[in-house]
Amino acid sequence: MTDTAKEMILEHARAGARLREAYFEANADKVNEVAKILALCLARGGKILFCGNGGSAADSQHLAAEFVNRFLMERPPLPAIALTTDSSILTAIGNDYGFDLVFSKQVQALATEGDVLVAISTSGNSNNIVEALKVARERCITTIGITGQGGGRMAPLCEHLLDVSHRHTPLVQEVHIAIGHLLCQLTDHYLFENVMELQPYLNEPDGACHE
Question: Residue 7 falls within a domain, yes or no?
């Protein structure tokens, strides 16, 4: 290995560690709040929908799998759907209506009041994510954004925003999947280990259309 290659590796690792630690130090309460929202959604019989493009599409599929299968503990499967996986749906919508609607039409078809849409984008400006969030808000779906660079056009459409304010996409994506893993672990914690903390909220409106 050359000295240059080794330094590239170590600098990436150091920068990632600094960003990860700084993000969670500043945003632990927000991550915990979003996990409670996901747990309440599932406890009330709702489901979680994920969407994203490119690496964020992979994150969507990864996190949906963690909920449907399991994360760390043995527990029942939890209802989650990645809107990034059905090639026939994606290409049919893309061909007939355009790529901007590949997620919003699925939200129209699959989401019901009380569900949660988790939209993942490093830029916050993907047109198809913005359109999905608009439809979700119209249909009383709670909107959660996991973003970078301040949240972009997604920010005002997300009731809850987990923004990694950094411009280097690979590092933002690394923190995104760490956020996702913590959301899985904390959701399981509130549903199966600390359900009493959710109890006071179970009979309250979810907030999406009840301000």
Answer: no
C-alpha separations of 146 from 6, 30, 150, 174, 177 in Å? 31, 11, 10, 12, 10
- pLDDT, tens digit, 9 for 90 and up, residues 124-141: 999 999 999 999 999 999
Rg (CA), the chain: 17
Q: Bridge partners of 88?
A: none
Q: What is the pLDDT of residue 14?
A: 96
Q: What is the CATH number of the domain that holds 89?
A: 3.40.50.10490
What is the CA 150 to chain-centroid distance, rounded? 16
What is the mean predicted confidence (pLDDT) over 101-115? 97
**Binding site as annotated, residues for Zn(2+):** 62, 66, 173, 181
- Which segments are annotated as binding site for substrate? 53-55, 66, 95-96, 121-123, 126, 173
Closest CA to 19 of 172, 162, 122, 121: 172
pTM (2 d.p.)? 0.94
Cα 72 to the center of its chain, rounded Å: 19
User: Which residues belong to the annotated binding site?
Assistant: 53-55, 62, 66, 95-96, 121-123, 126, 173, 181
Question: What are the pLDDT digits (tens) for 2-28?
Answer: 889 999 999 999 999 999 999 999 999
176 closest CA partner among 24, 5, 13: 24
Helix (H) or strand (E) holding 62: helix 55-68
Domain ranges, residue 88? 34-201
